[in-house]
Design goal:
Layout: E1 5-8, H1 14-28, H2 45-50, E2 54-61, E3 64-75, E4 84-93, H3 102-116, E5 122-124, H4 131-139
Parallel strand pairs: 4-5
Antiparallel strand pairs: 1-2, 2-3, 3-4
Length: about 150
């Protein structure tokens, strides 16, 4: 069995990272009717790949990129016990490689990096109706905390 390698993303990965971003947006459109219909971007990958507070990783199998994720260190609210936390995002696995533990491997590497930066809490956002993603993150140890509510006017 071939081994999945998780490594730091590089500028040479941009084309694939852009494709992954489009895959994330495509998958999330059914969960958010307020997303614009034209081409949108969630991430500034060029900035993020060199930012000291962000670690972008990719999953590689047989020299092919099959997944991605990032951890971004952010300042926490002043009333919390911890001054900083890490937000996970850009979590993507190519459809043909889902169910192989790729997402868990990415999360584990990002957890290790966050811990090495003295971070004691991880967070992520997921659409409540995206039950497959919610289940995957719960399996990784995440628990729901706050529900964002919206009302269109």
């Amino acid at each position: 069995m071939d081994e999945i390698l998780i490594r730091k993303a590089s500028v040479q990965d941009f084309d694939t990272l852009f494709r992954f971003e489009m895959g994330i947006i495509h998958a999330e459109r059914p969960f958010d009717s307020t997303l614009r219909k034209d081409e949108i971007h969630y991430y500034d990958l060029e900035e993020m790949i060199t930012a000291p507070n962000v670690k972008i990783v990719v999953a590689e199998l047989n020299n092919e990129l099959i997944g991605s994720g990032y951890a971004r260190i952010e300042k926490s609210k002043g009333y919390l016990q911890h001054k900083y936390h890490a937000c996970l995002g850009f979590m993507y696995v190519d459809p043909q490689h889902r169910g192989k533990g790729v997402n868990m491997k990415i999360i584990n590497v990002l957890k290790e990096w966050a811990t090495s930066q003295n971070i004691t809490e991880l967070r992520l956002e997921v659409y409540a109706d995206n039950l497959l993603a919610v289940k995957a993150y719960e399996k990784a140890g995440f628990r729901g905390n706050m529900l964002e509510m919206r009302m269109g006017l």
